[in-house]
What does this fold into?
Amino acid sequence: MTIMEQARRGTSLLVQEVAQKEGVDPEQVRRGVASGTIVIPCNPIHDPEPCGIGAGLSVKVNVNIGTSRDMPHIEKEMKKVEVALRYDADAIMDLSTGGDIDAIRRAVIAASPVPVGTVPIYQTGLTAARKGALVDMDEDDMFNGIEVHAKDGVDFMTVHCGITQESVAWLKRAERLMDVVSRGGSFLTAWILHNDKENPLYKNFDYLLEMAREYEFTLSLGDGFRPGCTHDATDAAQVAELVTLGHLVTRCREAGVQAMVEGPGHVPMDQVETNVRLAKRLCHDAPFYVLGPLVTDIGPGYDHIVGAIGGAMAAYHGADFLCYLTPAEHLSLPTVDDVKEGLIASKLAAHAADRARGRGDERDRLMSTARKDLDWERMFELAVDPDKAREFRARGITAEEEGCSMCGDVCAIKILKEHLKR
Amino acid sequence: MTIMEQARRGTSLLVQEVAQKEGVDPEQVRRGVASGTIVIPCNPIHDPEPCGIGAGLSVKVNVNIGTSRDMPHIEKEMKKVEVALRYDADAIMDLSTGGDIDAIRRAVIAASPVPVGTVPIYQTGLTAARKGALVDMDEDDMFNGIEVHAKDGVDFMTVHCGITQESVAWLKRAERLMDVVSRGGSFLTAWILHNDKENPLYKNFDYLLEMAREYEFTLSLGDGFRPGCTHDATDAAQVAELVTLGHLVTRCREAGVQAMVEGPGHVPMDQVETNVRLAKRLCHDAPFYVLGPLVTDIGPGYDHIVGAIGGAMAAYHGADFLCYLTPAEHLSLPTVDDVKEGLIASKLAAHAADRARGRGDERDRLMSTARKDLDWERMFELAVDPDKAREFRARGITAEEEGCSMCGDVCAIKILKEHLKR
It folds into this structure.
């Protein structure tokens, strides 16, 4: 029985653990998992700490790590895992495309108590490309690649099943500035165009479902045609793919397989809510996993901030899972420090949305009380990054312990304490 | 005749220059200035480049600089002015409270081609406090302080005229976690409570208007009771003050004096739109100038990001002017680098809102085209921070000129170029 099927029968330890972590009724979680509005990505080979993603739960944040051809070293990636865990990443995706990809993935899974995701088509495509041509990969290569990842314990996998001959036709018609910016999306588009055949991951979706059942991994239905610039947002190519993904969600549920849906991308602020509502509607309230969205294109070096704006808005309007963006996005593979900066930006966005949706403001209240009391140690403890907060305060030399170097002797809090006797 | 009165008579050079910069019809700007929905802060003694703030214009960003008791050095503040101008600040406020405050203000005005704002009550209060007690400042001290700033050429001044005996009574009744966090607000609250008298800036508002007419400075009606934590947002104290500010806006317009209204502060995401709409309604569509808003309290060290989320949302819903926040907020006086980081975050928020409101996506389109063409020099030119973008790309060693170290040999753009012949 799959996790979803178990939930349809009754409660389970997994469901109870998620409910406890979230502070919600286990029955609510059970129903969510049973119907597919909540997923708990959990491959028993890996057996991570249970992490619920979806309706009524707190917003989760994923950290992408992974090597590239130009930066293939495993050591750096393992440091990124460390920093991701330290700053409370809810999931980690290993997107390695350089060095010993199998070894890195296995090391990440071994080191990570949180769910691990991958995009198997990267490795499949790369192997084919390095042997001859990307477009020479065949159906077996694709499914075998997925099976290898599943056997290693990968908890969720991005599969670009919505890229079909039909959606590629929409892409051709679309007046896009950027065509395709998803790596996996570009692989499958190239494959379809070159081979003039249907996407095997779509054509043989039932086989994929069998595999997902057997190994218990969650499908993350990838948005290969996600807009790569704000100009291309919410166009025919994107929405045609989303329509297909909605249909595939239904097939996942029929098969008892957990599924979430991936979303854009680059989206101007006025289209963020629409994107979330459309995805939720077309995909039957499946958990929605967004990359950003980036609300402008002009921020390279600061895309973690641009993504935090879009991510907070998306989560406020119903997105369940935010993929972080780092300051290095569009420019280079992130460093360990970029991973930290990107993760904290996304965690703040997720928290702001949770707070606005009534999913908990306790930490905000505690911080505010500590501020009122000018209790700096407590403020540091409650901050998303105690070290940075401590360092920033320390660099301003203050003449007394209480205030800070911003206001010095004109601290509003101290003045009010003296004059507003409560 | 004041700028507002001139606009009521007909067009002016100031109006035309603003219209040209914004790419809008001069008649639209003239009407906005005449009715008070647009301000052009411009003290003729300073005579800055015309900067229009308000209805139908692009969102502007202000940078706060200024010394404190603990960091009183003018040199550092002048470097902040430099960096603010380099990264396109639309206005600069000098909030100095340490060192030779007069000399710093004059140096900032001399160095700044953009409008300069101040909060005169800081200096007045400090002078009184250093002589004996803050609450000993008298009416003459307050108005004389304002006049000194006006004579130096200050273009806009924050005046906390909405803190009245009545609003202080609301503050006392409010169940706030943080009471008052505005420095000027705390000065006047303490003054009212200690002296048991009405706020002179409210009682003698007509005298303030006379002064504003004489020297042509714009009033920025301060929100002394802005919430200092998300828990306190949109409460009776805040709204009672806003009601008063709305009345004062009317009196400004009757007197031909330009006025904008300041807003919060700390506001959870679900209350941002309400705050903007309420301020616009109660204040008769006066330009709305927000500090942040910060959508969570737990981000010290990252409040420029938290403020960018709130600022983008506020601007999208109609705020006209964003006061930046730096990573040092709540911790220390910002460094030069903090100023840069804070300004860029706010500029991105402002741009994202402009782009979503149809006020220009040309730069986004150009960036997207440069990306499609893998034209890195052009991308750097179009980025908010060309130096950082260049540096980030350079640190990833790539085996060829075209792609970047993120994807290496699996660049979606290159793959599509090969396979999707258009």
About this structure: The mean pLDDT of chain B is 96. Chain B touches chain A through 110 residues (CB under 8 Å).
